[in-house]
Each structure stands twice: as structure tokens, then as C-alpha cells.
Predict the structure.
Amino acid sequence: MSLGLLGDPNAELLKQLTRVANALDKTGPSPWLEWVKTLASFILGVITAYVSLWLQGRSSDRREQNKMRRVVYSELIQAFLSLDNVIRAKALVTGGPVRYQLFQDVCAFDGEAYMKANHAIFYGLPEGTDLTWMYNWLHKIPAGGVYGLVEMRAPLGFFCERFRANRVVRNNVKRFASRAELRVIEEAAKIYSRSATFEEMVESGLFAFAPRKPAEADLQRPDRAKESEPTSQVRQATPTEK
């Protein structure tokens, strides 16, 4: 018997599987199952599109926030260093109570203008309120004025306080400041405070020492009257002198 008459068993098996597959195709799926598949595909497509758009928007917001932070923090850091240098240099030259005259603003306030022009991005910054107040303190010492130590140190004190207390501010200052600038800021943060000492207020002209005038009631007191009367020394005679 030849091999051709016996036939190939693998071919026969393939023929049987093909017949079963054709039979299944003729049966067709249930209409309910097809509807469920279509609905699931639609929902999955909507969710995928929404998540994709959300991720794209979030990535875009982060880029815009980083751009704003770069402008704002770079300007505030330079303003801080300029004020700190002025205070240190003036104190070294005079060695006593001083007055500071500013011939130009400590910064151009470009960062503040950028925040005001982009409210949607600014409101997404968790430290936005602190940044606004930093600019407000700088506005209190405009160019052309003469200021005492308290007025000059006030913006530095607020900056240092928020640098110590607000982790977001501290991390972004470290991010945008150079290594040398950060070293100066960290050292200054140990010195400057929002609360001014009495000596600083006196040096700034907020307080002045004046001689105390005696009140009229004090002059009428007997002990005060005796102190005001001239005293005469009288020596009593000894027994031998008598």
C-alpha cells in the first residue's frame, strides 16, 4: 500500500479543525454580547481620551508654572541680595546709626507684572500669597526715599521668615539660586527677622530719647521741696569751746 493512499494524518486533523471553525462562524455571537462589547469599547475610549487630555493639560500647567517661578524667584533673589549688600556695606562704612537713600528701585517688578498678567497660572502656585507679600514689602521702599534700618530690613525679614517656614518657597529658592547665592541667603536667614529691636527703631527715627520734665505734682511734694531748698551747714560748739 502506498503512502499516498494512506494520507497525511496532520492534514486530516487540520481539515477537521477547519470544519469546526467554519461551523462556529456560522453560529454568530449573541446580539446582547455585541451591545455590551460596543458600550465597553465606547466607555474605554472616552476614559482614555479624558485621561490623555488631563495629563497633557497638567504637563502644560507645570511648564507654565515653572516658567513663572523662574522669572519671579530670580528677581526676588537678586533684590534680596542687593538689599543685604547695601545694609552690610553701609554699616561697615559708618559704624553707627545710618540713613539709606535709594536712587533706583531694588528690582524692576517684572515678576509681579508677570503674575498679574497670568492669573490662571498664578492661582495654581501654592506659595502665591507669600510671593505677593514679598513684592508688597519691596514697594514700601521706592526709589528716591530716605529710609532707616527698620524700613530697609523689613523686606529681608519677611523673605527670611517665609524661607524658614514655607517648604515650597525654600525649595524653589534653592532651585533657582546659585550655590554662592544660596549660601548667603541661608546665613542671612539666621539674622533677619520681621520684629525690629528698640535700637533699630531709634536708629530709624521711629523713636527718640527726650529728657523727662518733672511734673508739677512732683514739685509740690515735701521731699522735693526740701531738695530744692538751699542747705546751710551749722557747726555746733563743743564743750571746750564754751
The radius of gyration is 43 Å. The mean pLDDT is 76.
